[in-house]
């Protein structure tokens, strides 16, 4: 699935050691379907060659405003008029200072001043440079001019120091650029999501779990963030990376058992939307052993079960009606082996929730693809087989219309 299909991105590169990562960034943008036009400052060409960027993008690279290759000799106008966005990575302290003052003494800065498309910067500099009052002022001015700053991150720097100022990784910049282009239908909303399986311990080394990979719940978290929400993701044991972590708009709590998940949900601040995507164990082990159960010389163990609290039901019961709509708006998930619509709708009514999402087909566990049936108070809507992230985006758009 390509999330930047048909997008034209001008990739600006300014002078900083992080420029070596711009090659990887160009590749990732193109993998997502974007066409990439590189514009470099003279200093950037000291760190990475225009030839490298030209070979990777398949487009001529522009480095100065006197370049005669554009027929009307107005590269600064031409390049931005066809672009969907200008992304500068790395953006040096010097470049940020110039842009914040509206200076235009080379092609890249002139292009930014003359642009009629959004501008996003991925700052990269030494920690002291980032903390310098002049750079703090530049960043504030740029933000108030509606320039998006992506990062920077904190960590080890090329100069040997450790701290704030590292450029975000190319994958994080790409993820944030994709998010930038999505509709902000959940701006200002707080979203709580449970995802993945739960694990009920039998003894310190054994337990009962299920085949949920967490992919659908994590995709919904990403889609909600892309839509402008603040997200709290409560995840059972799974190996997935937290989406859009660098935005600072997602909090993740890792849990193990259904009881842990219930407690984490109850301790989470109020939310506007709750998605119960986790495959929560219906029963906990009533008599877990503190020590590993030994096989030799022992009778076959008897495992007793005790019911787990129903997280979704508890959330739905806590929902208050405001202006005729429940808050939080609760969305449940159902995996059924037969009569999906009938069983899922029955579950929706039993739990008292406005929307339940049925997984169509038994092959969704661990897969990147899924098919969904949205069952609500007034009928149902099928979402055809697609990557889970694409379905998550469609689900978020649908839910936003219901709020
Ligand atoms: N759920 C929950 N807490 C539980 C159990 C389930 O929040 N203890 C949520 C799941 O996250 C999902 C929905 O409830 O959104 C699934 O409903 P449930 O009735 O538990 O499904 P099944 O266990 O599949 O029910 P059944 O065995 O009756 O089909």
Account of the protein in words:
- It is a single chain.
- The protein starts with 7 loop residues before the first strand and ends with a helix.
- It folds into 2 domains: 8-180, Rossmann fold (3-Layer(aba) Sandwich); 190-402, CoaB-like (Rossmann fold, 3-Layer(aba) Sandwich), CATH 3.40.50.
- It contains 14 helices and 21 strands.
- The protein is α/β, with parallel strands linked by helices and 403 residues long.
- Helices cover 32% and strands 25% of the residues.
- It is elongated.
- Bound molecules: cytidine-5'-triphosphate (CTP).
- The site of cytidine-5'-triphosphate (CTP) has 14 residues, from helix 12 and strand 18.
Summarize the structure.
The chain has 403 residues and is an alpha/beta fold. It has helices spanning 22-31, 44-47, 50-57, 75-81, 93-101, 107-113, 127-131, 133-144, 170-180, 215-226, 258-267, 311-318, 340-351, 388-402, and strands at residues 8-13, 35-40, 85-91, 119-123, 148-149, 153-156, 162-166, 190-195, 200-201, 207-208, 230-235, 250-254, 273-276, 283-285, 305-307, 320-322, 325-327, 329-335, 355-359, 369-376, 379-387.
Q: Quick one: CATH superfamily of the largest domain?
A: CoaB-like
The proportion of residues forming helix, as a percent range, comes to: 25-40%
Looking at the chains present, what oligomeric state does this protein adopt?
single chain
Per the CATH scheme, the topology name of the largest domain is: Rossmann fold
Q: What would you call the shape?
A: elongated
Order of strands, widest sheet: 12-11-8-13-18-19-20-21
The Cα radius of gyration reads 25 Å
Associated small molecules: cytidine-5'-triphosphate
Q: In total, how many beta strands?
A: 21
Q: Regarding CATH, which class of the largest domain? A: Alpha Beta
Question: Proportion of β residues?
Answer: 25-35%
> Which stretches are poorly predicted, pLDDT < 50 over at least 5 residues?
none
What is the first-to-last residue Cα distance?
28 Å
Q: What is the correct CATH architecture of the largest domain?
A: 3-Layer(aba) Sandwich
Major beta sheet summary? 8 strands, mixed
Q: Structural class of the secondary elements?
A: alpha/beta
**Number of helices, where a helix is a run of at least 4 consecutive DSSP H or I residues:** 14
**Total tally of structural domains:** 2
């Amino acid at each position: 699935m390509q999330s930047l299909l048909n997008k034209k991105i001008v990739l600006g590169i300014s002078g900083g050691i992080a420029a070596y990562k711009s090659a990887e960034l160009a590749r990732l943008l193109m993998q997502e379907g974007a066409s990439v036009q590189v514009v470099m400052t003279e200093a950037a060409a000291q760190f990475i060659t225009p030839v490298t960027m030209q070979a990777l993008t398949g487009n001529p690279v522009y480095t100065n405003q006197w370049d005669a290759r554009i027929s009307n000799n107005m590269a600064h106008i031409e390049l931005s008029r066809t672009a969907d966005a200008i992304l500068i990575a790395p953006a040096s302290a010097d470049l940020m200072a110039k842009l914040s003052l509206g200076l235009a003494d080379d092609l890249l800065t002139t292009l930014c001043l003359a642009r009629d498309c959004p501008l996003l910067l991925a700052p990269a500099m030494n920690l002291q440079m980032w903390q310098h009052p002049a750079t703090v002022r530049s960043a504030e001015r740029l933000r108030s001019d509606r320039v998006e700053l992506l990062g920077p991150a904190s960590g080890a720097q090329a100069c040997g120091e450790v701290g704030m100022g590292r450029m975000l990784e190319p994958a994080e910049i790409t993820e944030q650029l994709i998010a930038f282009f999505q509709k902000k239908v959940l701006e200002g909303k707080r979203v709580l999501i449970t995802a993945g399986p739960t694990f009920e311990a039998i003894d310190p080394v054994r337990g009962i779990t299920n085949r949920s990979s967490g992919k659908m719940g994590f995709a919904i978290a990403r889609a909600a963030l892309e839509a402008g929400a603040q997200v709290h993701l409560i995840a059972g044991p799974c190996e997935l990376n937290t989406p859009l972590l660098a935005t600072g708009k997602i909090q993740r709590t890792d849990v193990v058992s259904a009881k842990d998940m219930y407690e984490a949900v109850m301790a989470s601040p109020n939310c506007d939307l709750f998605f119960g995507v986790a495959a929560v164990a219906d029963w906990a082990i009533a008599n877990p052993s503190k020590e590993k159960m030994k096989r030799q010389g022992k009778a076959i163990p008897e495992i007793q079960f005790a019911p787990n609290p129903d997280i979704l039901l508890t959330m739905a019961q806590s929902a208050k009606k405001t202006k005729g709509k429940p808050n939080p708006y609760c969305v449940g998930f159902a995996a059924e082996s037969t009569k999906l619509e009938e069983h899922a709708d029955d579950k929706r009514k039993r739990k008292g929730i406005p929307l339940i999402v049925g997984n169509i087909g038994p092959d969704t566990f661990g897969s990147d693809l899924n098919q969904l049936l949205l069952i609500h108070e007034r009928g149902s809507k099928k979402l055809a087989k697609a990557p889970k992230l694409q379905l998550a985006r469609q689900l978020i758009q649908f839910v936003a219309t219901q709020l």
